Structures are given as C-alpha cells and as structure tokens.
User: Fold this.
Amino acid sequence: MKEQLKALYELQKIDLKLAQANAALAALDGALALRRKHEMAAKQSEAAHQALVNAEIELKDSELNLKSIDEKRAATEKKLYGGGIMSVKEATSLEHEVEHLKGQQGQLDQRVLELYDTVESLRAKSKAAKALVDDLDRQIREALEKEAVERTRLEAEIARLEPERAEAAARITDKQLLSRYEAIRKRTGSSGMARIVDHKCEGCHVAVTSFTARNLFEDKGIEYCENCGRILMLDVG
Assistant:
C-alpha cells in the first residue's frame, strides 16, 4: 500500500500543476480591466473634445458678432459726426445707438477674452485625455501580446501534463483507492491526499493521532484525516 500511496501522491502533484495551469488559463481575460479603463477614457476624451469644439464655435461666433458691432458702431459714429445736417432728435437717437453698441462691445470683448482662456484650457484637457487613450491603446496591445504568449505556454504545459497524468493514474492498480482520491479531490476542490508533516495533516494542518501515523508506518491500510477526510501518507521527504 505504501507504494500505491506514493504513486497516488505523484499523481496529485500532476493534478495540482494541471489545476494551476487551467486556473491561469481561465484567468486570461483579454486585458479586460485595461479595456474597461480604455472605454471610460475614450468617453471622457470624446466629451473633452466636444467641449473644446463647442467653445471654439462660441468663440468664432462671438468674434464675428464683435466685428459686426464694430462695423455698425463705426457707421453710426460716421453718420453722427460726419457733418451732415440732422435734427436734434435724430442726433440724440444716434448717440443712444452708439452708447448701446459700446455696451455690447464691452460685453463681447469680455466674453471673447474669457473664451480665449476657456479654449486654451479645454485644448490642454482634450490633448491630455487623448494622450491617455493612446497610452491605454498601447498598454492593451502589449497586454494582449503577453497574454497570447502566456496562453500558448499554458496550453503547451497542459498538453504535456495530460498524458503524464494518464500514465501516473495507470500506475495505481488499486482502482478503489484512485476512485476515493478523485471523490475527495472533487469535494475539497484542491487535493485528495496529504502527507503527515510535523504530526499534522498537510492539507488542513490539524494534528494526526499517533495511532494513525503508526498504522501508516506499519502499512496496515489506508488512513484518512479525521478533520478534512484526505487520504494520508507519511512524509517521505
């Protein structure tokens, strides 16, 4: 029975390697976290770009309006001060019009200055947002390249281990023992057997009785951990 337990333990080593490789393979998610960051960054970049476009349009419209008011004011002042004959009422009306246009000019001048600052700030934000998207694009490409290499490595490792596992399982002639191991491994989700290390079960770290250890030493049959139910074997170093 000792030899069968040793063979079973060798099988478990392969099973653990296979489980680790399969778990690592399943964890390859196509740079999901980076792609989510990229999606959010792309939306923010688009919003920053649209804000810049809107500010540039408003600036252009304000400059055109300012130019139109400048021209209208110049024409009104020329008419007012050009020396032509007009009534007091007409002159007063033109003076009011000039003052009104001056007020509009002042407001638009202030708004244009504000928009210059706004456009400059938004242009910087848009540039930074676009740079972040570009950087995430690069990170995703690199991550996918590394993932492809890792996927190939893991698939090759699994392909190598599977026939090794079949050979190791074939060396266990006690099929009832093998069946118990498989059932326990399925139940624990990891291992089906454990060594006794420092008088404790290697699987759950609960103390094993000296009676159990002696039975294994004397090769009296299969012993199970009273706590986790794993098949026990002596630590062979």
User: Anything to note?
Assistant: The beta strands are 193-197, 200-201, 231-234. The first strand starts at residue 193 and ends at 197.
